[in-house]
Amino acid sequence: MSSKYNPYEEVLEVLDRAAKMLGLEENDYVQLKYPEREMKVSIPVEMDDGSIKVFEGYRVQHSSVRGPYKGGIRYHQNVDMDEVKALAAWMSFKCAVVDIPYGGGKGGVTVDATKLSIKELERLTRKYASLLYPIVGPEIDIPAPDVNTNAQVMGWFMDTYSTLRGHLSPGVVTGKPIPIGGSLGRGEATGRGVMLMTREICKKLHLPLKGAKVAVQGAGNVGGTAAKLLYREGCKVVALSDVSGGIYLEEGLNVEEIMDFLTAQRGRLLKDYDAPGLTRISNEELLLQDVDILIPAALENQITEEIAPRIKAKIIVEGANGPTTVGGDKILEDNGIVVVPDILANSGGVTVSYFEWVQNLQSFRWEEEEINERLENIMTKAFDEVWSAAEKTATTLRMGAYMVAVDRIVTASKMRGIS
Ligand code: GLU
Fold first, then answer.
1. What is the pLDDT of residues 372-384, one digit of tens each?
2. From the alpha carbon of 87, which atom of ligand 1 is closest?
3. Which atom of ligand 1 is nearest to the CA of 71?
4. For the whole model, what pTM was predicted?
């Protein structure tokens, strides 16, 4: 049994394995083991009752070899430096696997955002943004939404940065509200990418998408959107969950109705939703359902060595970052369960973030149709490259994805040299 879960150590394990499979020497990739910069900040916030609370915040800039640091900001009570380091490294590999010109970074604040009022959330975000001001910027490091942050939070971040800078600077963050420089299609992009990757893997494995039984862990921006789009593709989404637990319906959930219900009001959860015939299940039970496709789209460390042997799904498409531990992954591989890895499966979000940033830099807007088409082209191409890499070395899609990504970063790094 593994000792305490440390996501950054898991990243290093996978990186070492991919490097070995690529035939790299330690010298070729050792710098990828160390984030280029790790910043920790203390964020004083005046609460609505007049008291001052100080929150801990982080920004880790893992690699800028292929471009500016890129990656979201997470608000969650379990955020710590090791988690943010892992999330930052995953961003470097994710951007490389879809071949967009970014490195990787990630930010986080240790806070239960659901306990804050909107005003407190705004003050927290603005103070965090001003503390990060010296190390972010459209050409330096470009944050975006992640768990418990959204377009509004990005709007506040962008406004604070722009005020300090002295001019409007929309390109400093992506995932903004559309009237202030956000991109069409960005809100749905991660979930759309998960749907596309599910479609591609089903094609390869000759599993018809229509009627396929799906379970989705997480009903937020990623899981909720993926569930909705797969439902529209004709999948039977039998199980869905969020922090309040899960729901199950053998004949398939009405995902459109559920998502309308959840998004109608801040703080609404699945425990508040009801429909005839619905059964309540736990988040763990959701992972163990007898389905064709399982989509973990919540947090890391879900499919562990304890859970993996009991998974019945044929295919796993990782909407979340790091949902499967190294130990869990090995068991899935032994059991012949095909996993589309996070760095590929959830790369739709950062891909449309890239489109948003390009539009901001050019002060130009693209149509949604064009965005969705470009997203599909980039992701299906990446899928094919990962598939081929995995096939060539008779390995998993995760190792295939890491081989593609690490090779791209190491090649760029060698061409640049060390200055
Ligand atoms: N937070 C998202 C991710 O983990 C999006 C990052 C971005 O758009 O920069 O991929």
1. 999 999 999 999 9
2. 4
3. 9
4. 0.98
